[in-house]
Amino acid sequence: MTKWLVTGAGGFFGANAGAFLNGRVESVGAFRSLAASSLFGTNVSIDLRSGSSIYEVVDAVRPDVVVHAAALASHEACESDPALAQLVNVESTKHLARACTDVGAKLVYLSTDAVFDGSRGNYTEKDATNPFSVYGTTKLLGEQAALAIHEDVLIARTNFFGWSPSGTRSILEFFVNALRSGQQVSGYTDFVVSSLYVQDLLSAIYDLVGSGRRGVVHLGASNALSKYHFGVQVASQFGLDAELISPVTAAVGGHANSRARDLSLNTSLMESCLGRSIPTQEFGIASAYDDESAVAPRVTGFRE
């Protein structure tokens, strides 16, 4: 059984990774501070701000695969502290890539659709990048560093949704929580993504690693939806009131610069690599609905 080390194990993606990998691999969760999580077979602490901590953990665990999911992912936090964003999103990736080289581990780097500017959407892996934020810039620099340092790297550019440890990290949870409480909310009609259900994302990564795939692959849903239409679909699937969602533009919402974008990803290469059709966002929302009583309770409560 192969051994997988997952950084950011207490975060949104990391906790879901623990749930997905259970029984498939020997899983090791790397937390900022050691956590009593049953999601992973083994838990370790790692300080991604420290190169020595990264090397020590990777050398001690000696994994076959390292999934680097930990990041400073908030656009606002990155804008307010670009030095920290550089440290967490770029420098830690350099250390992990070198550590993976030392032990012969494959590195999976979780990246983002925000490496593009969102001016047109349907981006392929060959399209020129043009980040519109510090977050996107540092994630792109992390990509470039990983590819330059280590030969066995899979760059997973993605946007995803699902159930998170805090219950508030996902666009799915935003709409479910608000609509269940009868709260009126807004949904942007001019912010478009191809968000993939996180468990489908993990399945894709698992299969791509198994196939030995390297380089950049766009991992998204097979269709694009605006935030508004995503919310309407959530309401339909969960039996909630879609009339509580008001369609607005990002300009009206005061976020024209950062939110009025089409960041959808072209998934033709993903489909070719996996040899299967890619789920739509509607299918992912239905899967999340089915998983609410199974996956959600497992990931809830494990916070980094």
UniProtKB/TrEMBL annotation:
Pfam families attached to this UniProt entry: RmlD_sub_bind
SUPFAM superfamilies: NAD(P)-binding Rossmann-fold domains (SSF51735)
Residue ranges occupied by any RmlD-like substrate binding domain in the UniProt entry: 4-291
Database matches in CDD domains: dTDP_HR_like_SDR_e
InterPro entries named in the record: NAD(P)-bd_dom_sf, RmlD-like-bd
PANTHER family named in the record: NAD(P)-BINDING ROSSMANN-FOLD SUPERFAMILY PROTEIN
Protein's UniProt name: Unannotated protein
Organism: freshwater metagenome
